[in-house]
Amino acid sequence: MQSPLISPQQLNQLLGQANTIVLDASINFKIPNEQPKVHGAVIPTAVKFDYDKVFCDQESALPHMFPSEADFNTKAKELGLNNESIIVVYDNAGTYASPRAWWMLKAMGHKEVYVLDGGLPAWIEEGYMVNKVYRKEKELGNFEGKLDPDYFINADKVNQFSSLQSAHILDARSQQRFDSLVPEPREGLRSGHIPNSICLPFSEVMSGGKLKQPKDLTLVFDKLSLIDDKPMIFSCGSGVTACIILLAAYIIQRPNPMGIYDGSWTEWGANQSLPISVTE
Questions:
Q1: Dihedral angle of Cα 9, 151, 96, 218, to the nearest 10 degrees
Q2: CA 225 to CA 112: how far, in whole Å?
Q3: Nearest to 234 by CA among 211, 201, 203, 204
Q4: How far apart are CA 22 and CA 123, in angstroms?
Q5: What is the pLDDT of residue 188?
Q6: pLDDT for the residue 85
Q7: 236 tagged catalytic
Q8: What secondary structure does DSSP assign to the chain, as a single string?
Q9: Alpha carbons 14 and 22: distance in angstroms, whole number
C-alpha cells in the first residue's frame, strides 16, 4: 500500500503536473496542543477546502458533519476537482486538520489523495515559496464520488458496536477528558466516554506537528492489545482529531480501520439517552 503521507519534496515535484490539486484544509478553531498556525501564507496553486463551513451538512446543529453525497460532488466540481486528480491536502499548523479532509475524500472513493506530512510549517521549513492568496481561477471539475457509509458512521451504529463490544472504539481525546477528570470544553456536554471504548489521545501518535515514524506508531497501537478481526471506530470531540489516529492506523496498515464516528463526543455527550462510562 502506498503511504497516505507525502513529503514537501514530493509535493514540490507534483506541482508541475496539470492534474495535481492542492487543498488547504486549515481550520479556524484551535485543536488542543497543536503547533502554532501559520497565517498569511498558502502553498502555490492551493484552493481552500473548508469542511467546517462549506463541505459539511449545513442543516445539522453539530459541527462539520459530513454532507450528502450530492452536495459533496457539487462543491468538489466547483473547486475544480476531477476524478483523475492527484489531491494533496494540508493545514497551516502541521498534520492536524488535514487528515479529516483526506478521509472525506477517501470516503467518496477518491484513491489519489494524500496528506502533506507536517503541513504548511514543514513546507516553509524546507524553503519552498508561498503565496499570500488562494488560486482564484477554477475550471469546473468532473468529480463524481460515491459515498461509502462505513467511513462516517452515526451514533446508533456506534451504540450497537459499544453494547455488543463488536468493534474497538478508539477515542482521540485526552486521558483526562476520557476519565471525566476535567470538564468538556464545549458547554453542556457530560463528562466521560463511550462504554467499552479505548483512550488513544491523538498526541500519542504525533511529534512536532507530524505523525510519528511507523515503527513508533506500531508500538503505540501494540500497547492497546487490539484484536485484529474487530473493526476499529474512531471518535474524538467533534470528528477532527479522530482522523489523526485513523491516519496513524492506516499508515501502519492496522487491520480493519473502519471509520469515523462523525458526531463524536459533541453529539454523544449532549444526548442524555446515550450511555456513558465515567472513571470512579
A1: -80
A2: 32
A3: 201
A4: 13
A5: 87
A6: 98
A7: yes
A8: ---SEE-HHHHHHHTTSTTEEEEE---SSPPTTPPPPP-S-B-TT-EE--TTTTSS-TT-SSTT----HHHHHHHHHHTT--TT-EEEEE-SSSSSSHHHHHHHHHHTT--SEEEETTHHHHHHHTT---BSS---------------TTSEE-HHHHHHHHHHT-SEEEE-S-HHHHTTSS--SSTTPPPSB-TTEEE--GGGGEETTEEPPHHHHHHHHHTTT--TTS-EEEE-SSSSTHHHHHHHHHHTT-S-EEEEESSHHHHHTT-TTS--B---
A9: 10
Residue 11: closest CA among 126, 109, 131: 126
- Do 200 and 232 touch, CB atoms closer than 8 A? no
**Of 56, 199, 236, 243, catalytic:** 236
Backbone φ, ψ for residue 165 (5° rounding): 50, 40
Question: Is 0.90 topped by the overall pTM?
Answer: yes
- For 9, 22, 42, 162, 255, the CA distances from 16, given in Å and listed in that order, are 12, 12, 17, 47, 35
8 A C-beta contact, residue 265 and residue 189: yes
Band of pLDDT at residue 1, cut at 50, 70 and 90:
low
Give percent of the chain with pLDDT exceeding 70: 99
Cβ burial, residue 270 (10 Å; 0-12/13-18/19+): middle
Cα separation, 79 vs 137, whole angstroms? 9
Is the sign of the CA dihedral 201, 206, 212, 216 positive or negative? negative
pLDDT digits (tens, 9 = 90+) for 219-251: 999 999 999 999 999 999 999 999 999 999 999
